[in-house]
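Fold these two proteins, one after the other.
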Amino acid sequence: MALREGLKSQFSALGFEVLDNILDKCVEMCVLHNIDDEEFVESWAAYSVTNLDGAAPTEEALSQFERKELGKNNVSSNSRQVTTPFKSTAYRTPTGSKTSTGNGRNELNTTPKGTGDGFLARMLSTPVSRGTFSPASFSPASTTPSGKYSARVNAGEAVFDFLERSSGDWIGKNKIHLSVGPYRDKILSSQCRVMMETLMEKAAVLNDVIERIGSYLIELNGLQDPSNNHEVSPTEIVCLGRICCDSNDRLNASSVLLEGSQSTCLGHTVALDLSQVSHYSLFPGQIVAVVGTNPTGKRLHVTKLYHQALLPSPTFLPRFSGVMEVVIAAGPFTQSDSVQYEPLQDLMTYVSTHRPHVLILIGPLVDLRQSQLIDGSIAESYDAFTDKIISGLMDKLKGTWTQVVVVSSAHDAACLPIFPTPPSLSVRPTSSSPLHMVADPALLNISGLVLGVTATDSLMHLSKEELSFPPGGSDRLGRLASHLLQQQSFYPLQPPCEDLTVDSELWDIHACFPVTPHVLVVPSNLRYFIKHLHGCLVVNPEHLVKGAGGGTFARLEIEPPSDDDTWSPASHISAQIVKI
């Protein structure tokens, strides 16, 4: 009787006067699933807001609620945790909401703190406007559109052009048959083993990279066999190794070390004297070949430095029947002061109008750096919200020829917080679906067009660590982007940035280039650009959102090869950066 009265009181606090038969069913469900009245009503409130727009309980709705939320997450009597729509993924837990369980793991407390009966009553009595992509929320403030975004100017304006040929109108005219898939056989899946490498395994990977790129530099530049970096030699010798810093500070001219390979140098480091080199651009992790003298065996006086280990372009050419339109946008997709996802809605309006053949969305979709997405105010799980966004995207493109590529991100709530980052577990498209969920980074083969893309801000990380001489050299952005191609890697920095967790074995397999791609997409907080570098078109579209305001995206028009089978990114691709 106490349970029945408690349920009646809890529903009454939310403004619902439920019938006796509904109360009977609620009591039955509470007993069956070992839930008290408060937990049950708050679980129902979250489910109702997410799925029924805050409607009162009915017998049919309660049956669906039991099947979808309670039946699949039945708990034992010694665990008072009930999985509700607040639950995070297995990999992410919103800050400030952790409780310790007996097995030593942290799980999300299913009842948000500070959301008592009065709060829920106000929440359900206040109409909450939600767009296609915005989450169900317990905080009306989070559903308020961003004033700064609405007040933006020059929406739709092209702010940067790369037009080596005359561009069209950026609209897909005809359907062209395209195959979208991975370039290499080994692809990163969510079933991979992550962060289980030993220090010896990590050291072996780093050593292999020195030997692989180092030997390529030797062959490419016709250098003699490498010597031990501690060999005493008053005449010039060649040494291979990785650039390191002798302190925890930023690299400077007096702190540059060269770490040699195990086979040649036993992994020892030697200080480099760069005073005789007229210009250089170095960063920790860069693989180089140096020519110089070592009179004492303790300092290598460098006279020449080689670091451009550029790989050849793919041996095949793109093959498609007409001009291919591509749109590329990088997250976040909602503003810092709103979860309305207005920029994503505007982007999809553009895509629906311009009908590109390929849409590349670079994560995060659900950004863990957006405070309103992690403060417990949304009334659905991260996985459910991610699935909702993807479903909304595909619904808007139903009946079109647009193929969608979604790139994962270590900052996405539905992804593993490591690099390389496997695709989200929450969405699993079928083989016939126009949706492609790919890892970060990804190397794609789009009917012969090899396109590399990463969600990680490699350029910004490199810019914080690079040592360039003479200082203030021209085209800094182009130089930073060139490092990726010259070092055959989406992320050549070693050690990585502090906020990036790197699995070395996965990095060696999935983040290194087997060829120089035709197009390389590297979203960054650095200023947008499109540059043709070393036979590759490098595109930094920046981000679709900048804080509370709108950002930019990129669009490409790609012509197929002509009859004489000549094709290059510079001569056959037009590109623009456009304000959302």
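Now the second one:
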Amino acid sequence: MAETLSSLRSLMASHSPPLDALVVPSEDYHQSEYVSARDKRRQFVSGFTGSAGLALITMTEARLWTDGRYFLQATQQLSDEWTLMRMGEDPPVDTWMADNLPEQASVGIDQWCISVDAAQRWESAFAEKQQKLVQTITNLVDEVWKDRPPAETNPAVIHPLKFTGLSVADKLQGLREKLRFERARGMIIATLDEVAWLYNIRGSDVSYCPVVHAFAIVTLSSAFLYVDKKKVSNEVHSYLKENGIEVREYTEVSSDAVSLASDKLRPSAVKGTDAEKIRSCETSVENGASELEGNQIDLIWVDPGSCCYALYSKLDSDKVLLKQSPLALAKALKNPVELEGMKNAHIRDGAAVVEYLVWLDKQMQDIYGASGYFLEGESANKKKDSETRKLTEVTVSDKLEGFRASKEHFRGLSFPTISSVGPNAAIIHYSPEAESCAELDPNSIYLFDSGAQYLDGTTDITRTVHFGKPSAHEKACYTAVLKGHIALGNARFPNGTNGHALDILARIPLWKYGLDYRHGTGHGIGSYLNVHEGPHLISFRPQARNVPIQASMTVTDEPGYYEDGNFGIRLENVLIVKDGNTPFNFGEKGYLAFEHITWAPYQKKLIDLSLLLPDEVEWLNTYNSRCRDILAPYLNESENAWLKKATEPIVA
């Protein structure tokens, strides 16, 4: 790391103008959370492997900002050259730069990796001391990253209507209605999952996310996909053409943004049927525009949180509509086909998780003499006749992936499995490595947070278990997390309620004991798309106020508790937002509720039954009964026998 920092500082000093600081964000050209190997620039310069963070390098310092999920992990991974900046506790990066860099300082950025929102916020912070953002001639990290991985060239594929539930034509029509309403004649779409959703295509350019590296531009009469054409087969090309989408090279998005700004962006010359389609579309657009009573349609829609500053800078800022993409909410509101697919995917996934727990339970008994998933027992040690057998965080997570891989429509994991024992479970987004991971310990808590990508849905589940004798403290903490998990899942709330208001429900049982957790409580989840999906979330963070929770959204329910150096606990299910079916309707608002679609038992031995209320016991027994009924057809006789025992009614 020291050599990398030295090389970067040499480039900063020789740059014109010389740079006082260099920003290295986590994001790629599309502001993605998960990025391909060649785009992990921040990880390369800092050694920190978490999915969220920003590195700032000056001539004398190197600082890394990350959020509460990664405080412990960053402390362990950063070398002495780096200073950890805790988001929410330390000054944000723009404030720190404005206060600590000299007047008229030059801060180097790659405009393709910085969002419009971030760039404008920083420029505002810099104004007082006349500091400025400087577009570097090249990405300086790429200059020193000698073994940078090559670009992905994986094929794009069509995602069939039987899984998407909505055609491309329907989605484009909905988008164009939004454009006309906002008096915009076009939109630049940079977010990878929005491009994939809009055009009903998928890919594998980013690990765990079935997306293609691509931009899109949609106008009132045309649509374009900017992608490496080597990824587009004849079949996909024909499919896109039939839907009025022209394929252009990935790099052409830059020049086409300029053409869009000057209203000169046009499809390539077409003949026959395609030309007739375009003329028909243009006529429809003109008729729709006339309904706006002469108001000029002249804006270009740009999402400031997801569009890179490089493309925005090519537009006339006075004619740009800076507003969240309408596709974010459209994608989050699942249609009936997507909802049914999500339910089915979670049933198969639940069966895989139960198969894993049955296997793991037997392994722990055979190797350690542990008492099992559902039996209270004493401490255990490895049996003498099992010394050659070894269960590690990685080998067991590989086994879980194998169970999932046997299920219909499986296409891979939805994120790197968090398989963590004892102190490692206190690292919220722990990622085990084969060379350094821990061996399973029957006397320590084991937490696994995992998910899969299926053609009909994306899954995300967390369970926490103990195969020996948990302490009274561990049971009390687990039960507090469980009570918060149940409280949120059972919530009834009026339309218009946001995730910021709901977040407290999962924390109150923990706050009673002075406990808490540093991550949000819930995130949206895609339909064979990204496991983290906006625009809604359930969180203490201010942005959770921006979008109300709405019927047909999917969201996770995942409170936790973590003791550094000891253990971590988290429980997570995916929920569908549905009508609340309340007996009254105060204010005529309509009320909403949640439906659990994740199926796997909670470990009874970790529950302190004395802390549960009667309605919580009733909920657990009902959930367990449904687990047995729903998963039974997918399990063999011995697995069903295990599940029956693991879900026996609780008597408080």
